[in-house]
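Q: Given only this backbone (580 positions), what sequence would you predict?
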């Protein structure tokens, strides 16, 4: 043969012994392949040895199916290896793709082709999914041969020949095949058996095929990638692809279309005739049923007309009876309205009486406080008069002494007058709500009853956070506080507590002002506690109280000032809480 282009000079320098050593015969390929493999060079075979070795191997592969030799050409290196060893290290085969073993040994170009590796079954059979124990055919050394999913779901059997695998599947020696779908479909097309196979979707694997290069051939890889990118997808590429894998036969041929149209027309004519026949029968049956229903409906309408006449007569009687009831109801409503108006008027009269009684009670309390406030000043005026009388009797009375004692008496009288004004302003009714200080109300209230508390030897302790204010009617708030303090005073005096004490705490709670009044008078009886705010309820002797004070206090705080007034027993006494 002729040397490879670029190797002519090197072949010309070779000796006869070297050329003889590079020569390979058919017998050596069949009988002594190991000798050839040992003497093969890792690089390019010299001269005609390359062409000669290729031709001999290709002839052996074509004429002798059992030949165990394959020729490997990758990245410019040409080597003859055994078929078994070649497949073991990941050589080229139509049923093989890129796997992890080949990635470790070779460097690959960009993909030239992607083949789906799918399950293929017989088209005539029924496939209900993978199950354990199924016989599956795979190509030996392929990606599907070592796939874990295939081993877990069935029993894979390796094949060296795709043709043998196809015939075993057709003869039902296999239940299923896991091979590259294009390869199997191409073989079936060549044999005219494509109608017997069915490819299951989706593919189990995607087999990517590319050119394998030596790991150091990066420049060649870049050139091949550019060439592949410019060639793959072109019309010439598709032409070669269909030439290699075969072009599927069109399903819709002229004959297929003709037979399909004819069959459709025949079935349409038969269907129209049958539909018309059944439609006539259905219409006749429907017409008979409709006539029967009309007759029945006529009878029902006659009966309903009779019932309607009776119902109209009954409704007329009902309306007349309803008119009578309506007149009676109007008369009853008038009587009830008159009774309600009388009851409301009576309740208003009672409320006015309660208010009047509350005012009288407050007035009595005020007069009592005034009497306590005036007792000491009146006593002082009496002493001044007695001093003047004694001085006059003893002859020591002088004009200066008279003026001095008169000034003292006038000071006491002015103090008593101011006391009257303070009480009058204190009980004057507020007309509008306004903001007031709780401390101011507490101090003024304690001043009004200080004399009575001192006479009863009752100690008052006041604790305040300072700056606590409320919005409402100041004088009414003070009246409520005076009622509570008066009740506490009466309880301490009546029960003769050894060390009577009233504690007042001023603060804020939940964004509202809080006033807590607590005494040590033994508390309120548990039976009376839920009723102490009822009108006219008093646990004391009716002579000492009429039960209006706490009721009016409840109304003032909760209705007039949108607050809350509660009472409870704590420790050794009672506690009242005012929240506004």
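A: Predicted residues:
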């Amino acid at each position: 043969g002729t040397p490879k282009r670029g190797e002519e000079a090197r072949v010309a320098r070779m000796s006869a012994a070297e050329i003889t050593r590079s020569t390979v015969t058919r017998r050596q390929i069949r009988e002594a392949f190991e000798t050839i493999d040992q003497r093969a060079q890792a690089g390019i075979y010299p001269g005609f040895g390359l062409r000669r070795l290729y031709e001999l191997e290709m002839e052996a592969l074509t004429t002798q199916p059992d030949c165990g030799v394959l020729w490997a050409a990758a990245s410019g290196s040409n080597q003859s290896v055994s078929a078994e060893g070649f497949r073991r290290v990941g050589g080229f085969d139509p049923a093989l793709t890129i796997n992890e073993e080949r990635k470790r040994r070779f460097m690959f170009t960009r993909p030239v082709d992607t083949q789906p590796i799918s399950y293929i079954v017989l088209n005539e059979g029924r496939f209900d999914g993978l199950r354990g124990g199924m016989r599956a055919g795979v190509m030996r050394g392929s990606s599907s041969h070592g796939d874990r999913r295939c081993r877990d779901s069935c029993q894979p059997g390796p094949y060296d020949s795709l043709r043998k695998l196809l015939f075993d599947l057709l003869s039902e020696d296999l239940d299923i095949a896991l091979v590259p779908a294009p390869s199997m479909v191409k073989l079936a097309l060549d044999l005219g058996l494509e109608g017997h196979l069915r490819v299951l979707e989706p593919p189990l694997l995607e087999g990517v095929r590319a050119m394998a290069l030596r790991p150091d051939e990066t420049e060649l890889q870049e050139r091949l990638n550019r060439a592949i990118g410019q060639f793959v997808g072109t019309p010439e590429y598709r032409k070669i692809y269909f030439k290699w894998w075969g072009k599927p036969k069109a399903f819709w041929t002229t004959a297929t279309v003709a037979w399909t149209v004819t069959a459709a027309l025949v079935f349409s004519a038969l269907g129209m005739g049958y539909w018309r026949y059944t439609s006539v029968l259905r219409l006749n049956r429907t017409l008979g049923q409709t006539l029967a229903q009309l007759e029945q409906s006529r009878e029902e309408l006659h009966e309903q007309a009779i019932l309607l006449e009776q119902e109209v007569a009954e409704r007329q009687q009902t309306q007349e009876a309803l008119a009578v009831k309506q007149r009676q109801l109007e008369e009853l409503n008038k009587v009830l309205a008159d009774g309600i108006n009388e009851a409301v008027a009576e309740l208003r009269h009672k409320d006015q009486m309660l208010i009047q009684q509350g005012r009288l009670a407050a007035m009595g309390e005020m007069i009592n406080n005034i009497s306590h406030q005036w007792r000491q000043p009146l006593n002082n005026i009496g002493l001044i008069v007695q001093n003047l009388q004694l001085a006059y009797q003893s002859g020591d009375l002088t004009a200066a002494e008279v003026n001095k004692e008169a000034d003292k008496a006038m000071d006491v009288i002015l103090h008593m007058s101011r006391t009257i004004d303070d009480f009058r302003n204190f009980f004057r009714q507020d007309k509008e709500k306004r903001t007031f200080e709780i401390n101011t109300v507490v101090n003024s209230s304690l001043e009004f009853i200080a004399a009575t508390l001192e006479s009863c030897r009752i100690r008052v302790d006041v604790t305040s956070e300072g700056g606590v204010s409320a919005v409402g009617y100041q004088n009414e708030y003070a009246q409520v506080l005076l009622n509570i303090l008066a009740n506490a005073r009466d309880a301490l005096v009546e029960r003769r507590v050894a060390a009577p004490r009233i504690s007042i705490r001023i603060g804020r709670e939940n964004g509202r002002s809080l006033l807590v009044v607590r005494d040590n008078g033994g508390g309120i009886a548990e039976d009376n506690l839920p009723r102490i705010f009822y009108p006219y309820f008093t646990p004391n002797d009716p002579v000492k109280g009429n039960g209006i004070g706490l009721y009016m206090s409840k109304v003032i705080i909760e209705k007039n000032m949108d607050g809350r007034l509660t009472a409870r027993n704590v420790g050794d006494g009672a506690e009242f809480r005012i929240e506004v």
